[in-house]
């Protein structure tokens, strides 16, 4: 009899983080995958990653359109309430043996609460990390609710232990997203044209002499300033005069401020050399990163994947303040000149030696082996 493993995907980042694990579970003879897709992962506004999931031939057990598409904390709370109702109903019918939730986005708290209250063993991936904003509260809440912890680093394991988790239920697996990085590291050739492959919005340009990538999200406890913070990056990119691929922000409080600033800036500066995307396929995204001059913004991609790829990063503001990071990262405040100068330094430096802080590319294999063999119980 196989174990039913339910994985809940709530956003585009969740899918890239867990894709290799989904593949490994799907192929494992002792495991059955129950895949649930909800939240902004269904929204066209944020790239509708559900289309990519289907394209990758994963069977979706259920999908729930429950994201409240606003730009304030109230809508985040309402999204969690709707997700609680959807997920608890699904769990009661599907009866998974294990539920897996990923990282620290606010929607993941609904997965954790539903599983915990229904006495279903809960696995948390990427607990024990620090970012210095409200994500820490979400992540630590899920750690408290989880029965098993698949963490990325030894330091993360120590933090989970300090929060009261039993050491025998904590496993240092590495980050599953680094599995995809390993594939790209040995086959880095950019064998696609992002402008023709993914459309997007903005000018076409020649990238043969290099390009930049920007991923900038609102900070949940600074959401009132998200537009002004984005403006500083836009000004720096315009002054650099380097072709730039800019990815649309996550669904978080403050997203509308980011989006409005981007639209206004594009209207006022029609010749700015920036092309905007909602989302692209995970391996293509990593190849785009690997061949870039520098990543600019505040995404955890700059801390995790870029460390393993050796890509130079200019990390802006407080969103990743507490994370373990490699030598490839320069931290700067939300100020045009600081962003501009740091980016020039990183371009001059060029790529760094890869740093395997978050794993060596075998997380999915490790995780599926644990899922197959652990004795299941909930730790009340």
**Category from helices, strands and their pairing:** alpha/beta
Q: What is the domain tally?
A: 2
**Count of strand segments:** 13
Helix content: 40-55%
How would you characterize this protein structure?
Helix 1 packs across helix 14 (363-373), helix 3 packs across helix 4 and helix 9 crosses helix 13. 42% of the residues lie in helices and 16% in strands. The protein folds into two domains: 3-175 and 359-373, 3-Layer(aba) Sandwich (Rossmann fold); 183-349, Glycogen Phosphorylase B (Rossmann fold), CATH 3.40.50. It is built from 14 helices and 13 strands. With 380 residues, the protein is α/β, with parallel strands linked by helices. It has helices at 12-27, 49-55, 73-94, 108-117, 134-145, 154-162, 177-186, 194-198, 226-240, 255-268, 282-290, 305-309, 336-349, 363-373, and strands at residues 3-9, 31-38, 60-64, 98-102, 122-125, 148-151, 170-172, 212-215, 244-247, 274-277, 294-297, 313-316, 329-332.
Key descriptive features of the protein:
380 residues; alpha/beta; Rossmann fold; 2 domains; 7-stranded parallel beta sheet; 6-stranded parallel beta sheet; 13 strands
């Amino acid at each position: 009899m196989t174990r039913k493993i339910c994985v809940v995907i709530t956003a585009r980042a969740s899918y890239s983080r867990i894709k290799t694990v989904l593949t490994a579970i799907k192929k494992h003879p002792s495991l059955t995958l129950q895949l649930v897709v909800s939240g902004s992962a269904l929204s066209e506004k944020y790239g509708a990653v559900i289309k990519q999931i289907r394209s990758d031939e994963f069977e979706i057990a259920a999908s729930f359109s429950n994201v409240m598409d606003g730009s304030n904390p109230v809508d985040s709370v309402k999204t969690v309430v709707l997700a609680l109702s959807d997920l608890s109903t699904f769990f009661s019918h599907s009866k998974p043996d294990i539920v897996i939730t990923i990282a620290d986005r606010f929607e993941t708290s609904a997965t954790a609460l539903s599983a915990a209250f229904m006495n279903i063993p809960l696995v948390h991936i990427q607990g024990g990390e620090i970012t210095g904003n409200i994500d820490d509260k979400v992540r630590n809440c899920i750690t408290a609710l989880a029965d098993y912890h698949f963490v990325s680093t030894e330091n993360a394991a120590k933090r989970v232990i300090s929060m009261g988790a039993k050491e025998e239920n904590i496993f240092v697996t590495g980050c599953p997203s680094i599995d995809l990085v390993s594939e790209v590291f040995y086959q880095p050739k950019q064998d696609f044209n992002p402008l023709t492959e993914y459309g997007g919005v903005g000018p076409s340009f020649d990238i043969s002499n290099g390009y930049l990538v920007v991923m900038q999200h609102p900070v949940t406890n600074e959401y009132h300033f998200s537009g002004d913070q984005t403006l500083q990056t836009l000004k720096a990119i315009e002054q650099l005069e380097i072709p730039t691929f800019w990815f649309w922000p996550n669904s978080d409080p403050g997203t509308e401020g980011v989006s409005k600033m981007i639209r206004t800036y594009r209207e006022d500066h029609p010749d700015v050399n920036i092309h905007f995307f909602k989302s692209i396929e995970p391996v293509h995204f990593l190849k785009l990163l690997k061949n870039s001059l520098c990543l600019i913004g505040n995404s955890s991609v700059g801390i995790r994947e870029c460390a393993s790829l050796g890509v130079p990063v200019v990390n802006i503001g407080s969103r990743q303040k507490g994370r373990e990071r490699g030598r490839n990262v320069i931290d700067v405040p939300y100020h045009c000149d600081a962003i501009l100068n740091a980016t020039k330094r990183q371009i001059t430096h060029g790529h760094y030696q890869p740093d395997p802080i978050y794993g060596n590319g075998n997380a999915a294999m490790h995780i599926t082996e644990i899922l197959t063999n652990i004795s299941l119980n909930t730790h009340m």
